[in-house]
């Protein structure tokens, strides 16, 4: 009994803080999304409407009829697409890297791991800003390409979706390398040796032994990259142009110049829903995988 | 296994790994190098060595105030978050209990939900219950994120602890507090240090939550730099960015070396 009491007392501050300052606000945000927008920003308390969700799909024409508006859907689809492309690119880069790292001698592995962790913990804003320097016209990339006589004029990449993509891949690459590396490091080396003894070549050993055993790390990495990418704000704001807006900036706009809190809350709530769906699918897949293995 | 078939000899993996490490470090190195360039017309050209932009940063009163705000908020959030995380770690690292999964999932939520969603949810909540946006609201918001960041390394350390040590102390009539202070605390110290450092770095690096939750006069450094970059870049941004990189790298290296010493 005292143990239980002690445990509750120890756990209380953490659960209370996260509960009051995080979980309650999330619920409150869902509530705000059902409120009516105030005449000059803010909300009208107690007046409920589904306007915020209707605005997501429709707009009112001059005669007050609802007509379908795909602008916001397009922004969501663009964000989902960019997050998926980023996850794919980081996976392609991270898998061979993690494989190489995992089969290095142990002392070197610690150092390599540290080298991946440093960018992971370096200020996200600063890392994205460094790509402004690299990609701007007359920037470092242009300068190098022109210096090598590979191009005669600027690439003009900055403020395009490509620049956002580069920024996202750069920001989230360590999130993909780390979990894949962790799952590969755990693989019993004798499995690989056995594969070679049985005449497998290296490609077969990777495909038939390492890939299946590293699968938890791969799916974990995909989730770790996809989820924050979907809600990313810094990379699109610094590197993307006005024409390729993503969900994060759209949400921010509702709390800035648009002054439409219910709509902003509804957008954030839909984004949260998408992410929980992705996490749930991952959990289901993982569970099914677990059953299949047993 | 014959050397020729060793996996690390897989030429493609070696090549990709080298390319990836280059990709990870070149932009950071370029930024650091350019922060020492004398030029003010072109941001991306080397125009001779100079530390003049560090002088500009040191003389920018707004930037210094933002730096001070960042340090104050990060320190408070780190101390509060780490203490709370140690307590939570002590509770969850003993015998498993009912509801532990739910409790741990709730604690991890701030790391799972995207920044932007968390930021506006906290903003709306503060506005609704009348907490003014300023340093205090920033400290509250940053503490929420410091807890799960600090919790993970502390809990990992606690789980690696030999339970018989605490039992031995109890058998020798040590009160629970003495057991904690004399036995457990010294053993989990590396976990606490690395948890606190990561929480500090996380708070110092946060842009999105601070952007929404700070008020006029309580701007943090990353928010200040963010608005500077969006308004039009000056080479002073290179200098302040380099300082931020130096702080993170120093703390990380310290955490890494402490972790190694205690292993």
Binned strand content of chain B: under 5%
Rg of chain A computed from alpha carbons, rounded to a whole number of angstroms? 24 Å
Q: Which oligomeric form is depicted?
A: heterodimer
The major beta sheet of chain A can be summarized as: 2 strands, antiparallel
Overall 3D geometry of chain A? globular
The largest β sheet of chain B comes out as: none
Q: Can you count the helices of chain B? A: 11
The pLDDT mean of chain A sits at 87
Count of helical regions of chain A: 13
Order of helices and strands of chain B: HHHHHHHHHHH
Largest sheet strand order of chain A: 1-2
Average pLDDT of chain B, to the nearest integer? 87
Rg measurement of chain B, Å: 23 Å
Strand content of chain A: 5-15%
- How much helical structure, as a percent, in the residues of chain A? over 70%
Task: Explain what this protein looks like in three dimensions.
The complex is a heterodimer of chains A (294) and B (263). With 294 residues, chain A is mostly helical. Helices cover 73% and strands 5% of the residues of chain A. Chain A is built from 13 helices and 4 strands. Chain A has a two-stranded antiparallel sheet. In chain A, strand 1 (35-37) and strand 2 form a beta hairpin. In chain A, helix 1 (2-32) crosses helix 13 (261-293) and helix 8 runs antiparallel to helix 9 (202-213). The longest helix of chain A has 33 residues, at 261-293. Chain A is globular and about 75 Å long. The model of chain A is unreliable at 290-294 (pLDDT under 50). Chain B is mainly α and 263 residues long. Chain B is built from 11 helices and no strands. Chain B has helices at 11-34, 52-58, 61-92, 100-112, 115-129, 135-159, 163-171, 176-205, 208-213, 221-231, 235-262. Mean pLDDT of chain B is 87; it is low at 1-5.
